[in-house]
Write a structure and sequence with these properties.
The chain is of the alpha+beta class. The protein contains five helices and twelve strands. It has one domain: Trna Endonuclease, Chain: A, domain 1, CATH 3.40.1350. The strands form four sheets. It has a six-stranded mixed sheet with strand order 1-4-5-7-8-10, with helices on both faces. Strands 2-3 form a two-stranded antiparallel sheet. The protein starts with about 25 loop residues before the first helix and ends with a strand.
Length: about 190
């Protein structure tokens, strides 16, 4: 754009489809904020539990953590409540175009999601194939079925397409996983049989 004084200014739009969200985590964070502000759901990212071992105090107000370690293996990334049901999920990204490597998710996280499901909660994973710009929700039931029937070290993209739910990226919320939960677990506002 040319201004009257001869200066040129280049404008960059950060609201285009290609520039939305720097990562799955930030997109989910934005979606969770949208759900909270619009009284749809209450979902938070869980903090990673750490133990601080060494702290440097160069001055009274400038404490610097020099050494810390994970206290216990964390369970999953997010938890909250929607329509009276507890929800718990893990979010992962992969650059792989054909499959999701299972070493990206830990066995204790899968066990945790299975426990949530066994006690009446809603457990799932959200996986973004970043090279394809495709995001899928896979329920713990479908994840467990895959693990029980396969010895592969990765879940093929085709399995997500056939057994998961494609999450279309929107303006608000960016990653509308609640829309998918409604389709799977709720029918006309009523809870479906799990």
């Amino acid at each position: 754009m040319k201004y009257p004084n001869g200066l040129k200014k280049k404008f960059t739009s950060y609201n285009t489809y290609a520039n939305r969200g720097m990562s799955l985590e930030s997109d989910i964070g934005s979606s969770n904020e949208y759900y909270l502000l619009n009284d749809i759901a209450v979902v938070y990212k869980k903090p990673t539990p750490i133990t601080i071992a060494k702290v440097d105090y160069p001055s009274r107000v400038d404490a610097v953590i020099k050494e810390a370690y994970f206290k216990t293996p964390s369970t999953t990334d997010y938890n909250g409540i929607y329509k009276g049901k507890y929800i718990d999920f893990e979010a992962k990204e992969t650059k792989n175009k054909t499959s999701f490597p299972l070493n990206n998710i830990h066995s204790h996280q899968i066990k945790h999601l299975q426990n949530i499901y066994n006690h009446g909660g809603i457990g799932f994973i959200i996986v973004r194939f970043t090279s394809l710009d495709e995001t899928y929700l896979l329920t713990i039931e479908k994840l467990t079925k895959f693990l029980d029937n396969n010895r592969r070290k990765s879940i093929p993209l085709e399995y997500f397409k056939e057994n998961g739910y494609f999450i279309k990226q929107k303006f608000r919320p960016l990653v509308d996983y609640i829309e998918i939960i409604d389709k799977i677990y709720f029918d006309g506002g009523n809870i479906c049989q799990l």
